[in-house]
Amino acid sequence: MKRRYPTQDHPLLRLLLTVIAVSVIGLFLLLPLATVFSQALSKGVVAALEALKEPDARSAIWLTLLVAAIAVPLNAVFGVAASWAIAKFDFRGKQFLTTLIDLPFSISPVVSGLIYVLIFGLQGWFGESLRDANIKIIFALPGIVLATVFVTFPFVARELIPLMVDQGRDEEEAATSLGASGWQTFLRVTLPNIKWGLLYGVLLCNARAMGEFGAVSVVSGHIRGLTNTMPLHVEVLYNDYQYVGAFAIASVLALLAIVTLVLKSLLEWHFADEIAATHRH
Question: Which H or E run includes 143?
Answer without folding.
Answer: helix 141-152
